[in-house]
Design brief:
Length: about 190
């Protein structure tokens, strides 16, 4: 805890000026998910004790139940637990009781139907296409070899993160789309 206090006393850099922190940690900083995981370990134990299926990363959490009615009941009881026991407040605008296929979590979502499958979220697909467009821009002034090297490095990391996807058609469509982008790049040269 001594190191954490030192980190908070050091402050953050805002527009070239160091500003001290009095409460919390900077959003997106490396300390924020670590502190969330330490502090919310008690929530994990509570959910396990209640027998819930859940997935949590830092301060993002999905709890899976069988019905919407059970979801509302669990959401209310967990919100009370967090408020009373842990002195935390749930952001109701970011929280919802809904079907798993209507939510996204860490870039993943679920398909509809009887048999749920893990799929890439719409936002994650949009982000990967945006990044690939940046890499394969024809006006970058780099060789095809450099472009392929940069693209393969990015895609290798991206695919290793999303290797859990159970919908291969999305990956085939993305592969075809990348092929078209590369052909456009070659035709420009």
């Amino acid at each position: 805890m001594h190191l954490i206090r030192l980190y908070l006393q050091a402050g953050i850099l805002v527009h070239g000026v160091v500003q001290g922190l009095h409460e919390g940690t900077p959003q997106g900083g490396p300390l924020s998910p670590l502190l969330s995981n330490i502090h919310l370990d008690e929530l994990d134990k509570e959910l396990e004790g209640r027998g819930h299926k859940f997935c949590r990363y830092a301060d993002d959490c999905n709890i899976y139940v069988r019905s919407e009615r059970a979801g509302k009941r669990v959401m209310d009881s967990i919100e009370r637990f967090l408020a009373k026991k842990m002195k935390l407040k749930v952001n109701r605008q970011k929280s919802a009781v809904t079907k798993p296929q209507e939510r996204q979590f860490l870039g993943f979502s679920f398909t509809g139907g009887c048999m749920l499958k893990i799929k890439l979220s719409r936002k994650a697909l949009k982000n990967v296409k945006h990044r690939i467009k940046q890499i394969t821009r024809r006006s970058r002034g780099i060789s095809l070899l450099q472009l392929v090297k940069e693209l393969s490095e990015y895609l290798r990391g991206w695919l290793s993160y999303y290797r859990l996807i159970e919908t291969p058609t999305v990956l085939r469509d993305l592969d075809s789309w990348i092929g078209r982008r590369l052909r456009c790049f070659v035709m420009k040269c």
